[in-house]
């Protein structure tokens, strides 16, 4: 009769600590970055809606800025003001572009800088 030794399988304490720390860092990064990414997509949605609005086809630049400002006020704020927009016309189509940087403090003196840019095109 021979004895077989069954080895235990699983995650060791060091693996749990490392995995938990990694999970904590990713969760912290996500919680800090998510609101700014959500703000970018809100601005992009409003820029596209303003540019593709049928009532804006013959509008002047100040009228387009005003329409964007009204949309942003309904949404509840934005990292982009109507003055930050670059408004051009390509053919009969209005093209609205924007670009901005956001510095997100993470821990102590460590920050993350994200450059956002978008266009209605």
Can you walk through the features of this model?
The protein is of the alpha+beta class and 121 residues long. It has one domain (34-119). The chain has two helices and three strands. It has a three-stranded antiparallel β-sheet with strand order 1-2-3, covered by helices on one side. A hairpin with a 2-residue loop joins strand 2 (93-107) and strand 3 (110-119). Helix 1 (13-51) packs across helix 2. The radius of gyration is 24 Å and the shape is elongated. The chain starts with 12 loop residues before the first helix and ends with a strand. The model has no long low-confidence stretch (mean pLDDT 84).
The count of helical stretches stands at 2
Lateral strand order in the biggest sheet: 1-2-3
Q: Tell me the number of structural domains.
A: 1
Biggest sheet record: 3 strands, antiparallel
Q: What attributes does this structure have?
A:
121 residues; alpha+beta; 3-stranded antiparallel β-sheet; 3 strands
């Amino acid at each position: 009769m021979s004895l077989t030794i069954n080895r235990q399988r699983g995650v060791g304490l060091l693996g749990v600590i490392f995995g938990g720390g990694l999970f904590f860092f990713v969760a912290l990064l996500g919680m800090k970055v998510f609101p700014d990414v959500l703000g970018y997509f809100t601005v992009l949605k409003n820029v596209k809606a303003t540019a593709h609005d049928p009532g804006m086809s013959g509008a002047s630049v100040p009228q387009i800025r005003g329409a964007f400002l009204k949309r942003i006020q309904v949404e509840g704020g934005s990292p982009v003001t109507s003055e930050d927009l670059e408004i051009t016309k390509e053919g009969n189509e209005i093209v609205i572009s924007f670009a901005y940087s956001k510095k997100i403090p993470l821990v102590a003196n460590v920050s993350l800088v994200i450059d956002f840019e978008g266009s209605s095109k």
